Amino acid sequence: MRNLRTWMSLAAVGGFLAVAFGAFAAHGIADPKAQAWMHTGATYAFMHTLAVFAAAFVASQGGRRARFAPPLFLAGVVIFSGSLFAMALGAPRWFGAITPIGGTLFLAGWACMAWAALQIDRPQA
User: Fold this and answer.
1) Which of 125, 26, 42, 34 shows the shortest CA–CA distance to 80?
2) Of 109, 124, 95, 111, which Cα lies nearest the Cα of 53?
3) Percent of the chain at pLDDT above 90?
4) Could you tell me if residue 113 is inside a domain?
5) 97 lies in which domain range?
6) Nearest Cα to Cα of residue 22 among 6, 3, 4, 44
7) pLDDT band with cut points at 50, 70 and 90 for residue 124
C-alpha cells in the first residue's frame, strides 16, 4: 500500500492542477479553441486523478492488480492533458500528435481496473 499512497499523493497534486488549469481556461484565455483544449485537458486530468483513488480502493478490496493502473492513469494525464495544455498555451499544433498516446494509457489503466475487479472476492493463492 505504500506505493499506492505515493500514487494517491501524486493524484492529489494532479487534481489541484486540473482545477487550476480549468479555472485558467475559463478566466484567463480568450481564444475559444485554446479554451476548449484547456477544458478537455482539465476534464480528463481530473477524471483520471480520481481514478487513481478508485484504484487504491479496488486494491484495498482485494483487487491487487489495480496497483498497475495509477502509473498508467497519471502518465496519461501528463501526455494527454499536458499536450492539450501546451497547445493552448502556444505550442506547435504537431504537439497534438502525441495526445492519443495519453488516451491509450488511459485505456490501459481502465483495462487494468477491469482485470483487478475480477480478483475481488476470490480466495488469494
Assistant:
1) 42
2) 109
3) 70
4) yes
5) 2-117
6) 44
7) low
**Quick check: is 38 in a domain?**
yes
Q: For residue 112, which of 57, 73, 60, 81 has the smallest C-alpha distance?
A: 73
Q: What pLDDT score does 66 carry?
A: 93
The answer to whether the beta carbons of residues 81 and 102 sit under 8 Å apart is yes
- The answer to whether position 15 is within a domain reads yes
> Cell numbers 477524471 correspond to what residue?
47
Place of cell 504537431: 94
Strands (E), the chain: none
Contacts of 117 (CB under 8 A, 6+ apart): 58, 63, 66
Residue showing cell 480466495: 123
Our CA angle for 28, 29, 34, nearest 5°, is 145
User: What digits encode the pLDDT tens for the residues 33-51?
Assistant: 999 999 999 999 999 999 9
pTM, two decimal places: 0.89
* 124 within some domain: no
As a 3-state breakdown, the chain gives helix, strand, coil percent values, each rounded to 5, of 85, 0, 15
| Total structural domains within the chain | 1
E strands along 8-123, which residues? Answer: none
- Average pLDDT of span 91-109: 96
